[in-house]
Design brief:
Blueprint (H helix, E strand, L loop, with lengths): L11 E8 L1 H6 L8 H14 L3 E9 L9 H11 L2
Parallel strand pairs: 1-2
Amino acid sequence: MKLNIMDNIEYKVGIYIRLSREDEEKEKYQESESIGNQRTLLMQYIKENKLNFIAEYVDDGVSGTSFDRPGFNRMIADIESR
């Protein structure tokens, strides 16, 4: 019998999605996941694994080289406040 650690635990899940200005530029030359595609993949995973979706955090067009990202900062604040 395989034991699934998620059987008796309810996980609260938030998703973080980011597409930087640099990624938008690269998209012209190579395939990149758009905000919508990232959202679709993450929500599908949440549904398939019966996780408790709480919130979505998005930084569209924001550089990942800095932690000064509104969506990221809101996610961290939510985690810290449980």
